[in-house]
Amino acid sequence: MDDAFENSELTFSRLALSLARDYISIYYVNMENGHYHEYGTKGEGRELIILSEGDDFFSDTVINANNLVYKDDVGLFLSYINKDKFERLIKTGETFTINYRLLVNGSYRYYNLKSTKGESIDDKYIIIGVRDIDDEYRRSLEERTENEVFNHIVTTMASRYELIYYVDIETDDYIEYRVSDRCEELHIKKDNKNFFENTQHNLKLLTYSEDYAMVSAELQKDRLLSELEKDKNYSINYRLMYGEKPEYINLRVSMLEDGRHLIFGVINVDASMKREMDYRAALRMATVDSLTGVKNKRAYLLAEQDLNQAIKANLYIDFALVVCDINNLKEINDRFGHIAGDDYIRLACSYICDIFKHSPVFRIGGDEFVVILKGEDFTLRDSLLRDLSALNDSNKKCDSVVIATGIMNYRRGHHKSAADVFKEADKLMYENKQWLKGY
């Protein structure tokens, strides 16, 4: 053992104190000759003992680093623990520290190494303390990862959302992120506690009156959590008052993996909602028959495309097509005029809709309609056709509307398209038309 250390109670006390606090071992290195001791403690009394010693600290360090330090950390480790670095440390009195991984019992653990200049008068000693920081470092990594994920979520959401809330559902505490200055127009109450209570307060003040009852019920805490148990994501559209004008917003709620936190994102979707409503209105105008109010031929062709896709996919689908034609419409137009003829068409349409009340009805020509029977109407199709036949019998006696019909069920493997089904139903309709006229 070096005489300087043996005779230095101050240094010995410092080593003992350091070991007692944090370090699992301390190296005491003589920079003049490379001689070193490694000290540790043992027993409940933490008695200071020599764990190892050697005559060439830096050569031994290279060997140990290559054998024990995690391979990706060896370069970093040796860039700090070398003679040139320590000689600069002796001159400047600087202190440095590094984290690295070390192989212990077959697995790698994180350690921290701190180097300082010794307290001896001739300044020839370096003291190196080694701490096992695996538990705290891994916790730090987990927290850092969680923060990075959370920051990524917030950053991603912030590109779209005006308001973001991070809510602890156990305490109702929350963090609010305001992305848009427009939120200031709403004067939203916030105190970072009592999130759901504040939400109900804000809804009452800010929600468009026609939407309030619905959205208030949907955003009750118990109801919302119940919905999130079924699906980790929830979305609702409603209108908020921006000044005196209501605008549509979309609220999206996601449950995080920890099962304790919710992310609420609020985005103004007024422009897109109004475009969608305009589109639907235009689509409705393009697919509704202006005379009767039922779907028109364009709508039927679109429905036919859906049926053809199902047929092409060889799906098991049950449907039937009913082709209807109004008898004697030409005579009504010739005798009473087209206004009377239009009334005749509307009356016939009302009869068809009343009988096939669960199925879409399409007017595909002046006096021709087609019905797509599915579900309950398909199951009861024979009974419904008897009802129509009874109506015809009654109307013939009083010179009212008589409707010829033909029905064909889709048969998988036989019909290649909806047009094939329609063709057979149309043929049966003409046969029924002739029969009704008594030919």
Number of strands: 15
Which strand order spans the largest sheet, edge to edge or round the barrel?
Answer: 3-2-1-6-5-4
Radius of gyration: 42 Å
Amount of beta strand: 25-35%
Q: Could you say what the CATH topology of the largest domain is called?
A: Alpha-Beta Plaits
* Structural domains: how many: 3
Overall shape: it is: elongated
Helical content class = 40-55%
* Helical segment count: 16
| pLDDT < 50 runs, ≥5 residues | 3-10
Terminus-to-terminus distance = 129 Å
Please summarize the sheet with the most strands. Answer: 6 strands, antiparallel
Q: In CATH's first tier, which class of the largest domain applies?
A: Alpha Beta
Mean pLDDT: 85
**Second rung of CATH, namely the architecture of the largest domain:** 2-Layer Sandwich
Helices and strands: which structural class? alpha+beta
Task: Identify the CATH homologous superfamily of the largest domain.
Answer: Reverse transcriptase/Diguanylate cyclase domain
Give the gist of this structure.
The protein is α+β, with helices and mostly antiparallel strands and 439 residues long.
